[in-house]
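re: ur question from earlier - yeah i can do the single chain one, its not a big deal. heres the input i used so u can compare w yours
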Amino acid sequence: MKITDIIQHLDLKVLSGQNGLSNEIKGGYVSDLLSDVMGNAKEGEIWITLQTHQNIIAVASLKDIAAIIIVKGADPEKDTIEKSNTENIPLLGTELDTFTIAGRLFELLKKE
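and the output i got, formated as tokens:
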């Protein structure tokens, strides 16, 4: 499933990284601890977090994460947006909390 499909089905807002919207999603990962994501997230997953600082892009780039969903309507910092655009890693936003968006993503990916 492509990120554009995820955006449409989960009603996500594209915050930055538009050049990466054709990335394929292989699964999802939920964590707010960068070291946990570095140690356990897999290539092609979509990462759900409430973190907004630029280090999330560095971790996503390191792990070849397909995209990041920022929850609870949090706005990414300016340098996070710039790095997202440079690295072609889409930052997506939702007003939903982590539990709700993770459940919806799981149900969506399970249908494939």
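The mean pLDDT is 96. not sure if urs matches, ping me
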